[in-house]
Specification:
alpha+beta; nine-stranded antiparallel beta sheet; seven-stranded antiparallel beta sheet; 16 strands; 2 domains; Jelly Rolls; 2 helices
Length: about 300
């Protein structure tokens, strides 16, 4: 386990917000503007509409009907293809979720030697505790930091990793999630981090040789439950990564830099002096080939 200090451009104050589509808004005005014209022409008495008003109303109704017919036709055509795609995807996901089990951690005990106790450093004061079937982490930030930890665990290449996590208290922009392919390169730890926050955003970052790289910039997802438990999952295969939040696929990315390593969890904070509490449970790791973990038994 070790803290890391993100570079300035990694700090949340500089992250880009997700873009929203303006298609529906444009369509709304396409229909609303003629309708508003009809209402404006009716100032005074709600008498029988003038010919121009009638034509506008008829045009709007006709347009709406055509749009409805086109959408129904599109849905009908896409339906079978979408169903087939969903079935194929589910089959692919089921295969990964049935890979041999490497570790299933419920935190009913600490036989897998997760770090516990307290530590004070330049970046944070932090403590870990296994209690009540939960892995608790409490931290006070002295500077912006990321702090990862992992159990006694061998390295893997391809894997399926899932954990239940939530932020109990603290600033909304605090991060929590998983680290994977953690390894020492020239005596410096490098790793990937897939994290989310209680503002409803997630990102995929890499720390390589002490340098931070954004692979997937911060973006919002309706799959994230703010200040509630979120199931975070990653599937890694040959440098391709698929990400899930609460069993919903949210993103994918490719990166060739870190092909193997240890997996664990991570928390991060950005503001000096703030405190936060995080909880983790049901840490599950699967890999295509089972790994002998007999050496991990206490």
């Amino acid at each position: 386990m070790a803290p890391a200090q993100p570079s300035r451009d990694f700090f949340r104050h500089f992250r880009a917000a997700g873009r929203r589509s303006h298609f529906l808004l444009s369509l709304f005005f396409l229909v609303l503007v003629p309708m508003t014209g009809v209402v404006a022409c009716g100032l005074g008495s709600p008498a029988v509409p003038a010919p121009t008003q009638t034509a506008q109303a008829a045009y709007i109704e006709q347009l709406a009907t055509k749009m409805s017919v086109r959408l129904e036709a599109t849905d009908a055509a896409a339906g079978p293809a979408a169903t087939a795609t969903a079935q194929a995807y589910q089959s692919w996901l089921d295969t990964r979720q049935s890979w041999p089990l490497v570790l299933e951690e419920t935190f009913d005990s600490n036989t897998n030697e997760w770090p516990t106790g307290e530590e004070s450093g330049d970046l944070t004061d932090i403590s870990w505790q296994v209690a009540g079937g939960i892995y608790h982490i409490e931290a006070t930030a002295k500077e912006g930091f990321y702090y990862w930890t992992h159990p006694t665990l061998d390295e893997v290449d391809d894997f399926y990793l899932v954990v239940d996590a939530r932020q109990v208290s603290g600033p909304e922009d605090s991060d929590y999630g998983v680290v994977f392919h953690l390894q020492a390169i020239n005596d410096v730890f490098s790793y990937y981090a897939f994290t989310l926050d209680s503002e409803g955003m997630y990102s995929f970052q890499m720390s390589y040789g002490g340098e931070w790289t954004t692979i997937l910039d911060w973006q919002t997802s309706p799959a994230i439950r703010r200040y509630e438990t979120n199931r975070i999952a990653v599937i890694a295969e040959g440098g391709h990564y698929n990400f899930f939040i609460n069993d919903q696929f949210v993103a994918e990315a490719d990166d060739p830099n870190l092909g193997h390593g240890t997996n664990g969890i991570v928390v991060g904070m950005y503001e000096t002096g703030v405190e936060a509490v995080f909880e983790f449970d049901n840490f599950i790791l699967r890999a295509p080939l089972s790994i002998d973990i007999s050496s991990q038994d206490g």
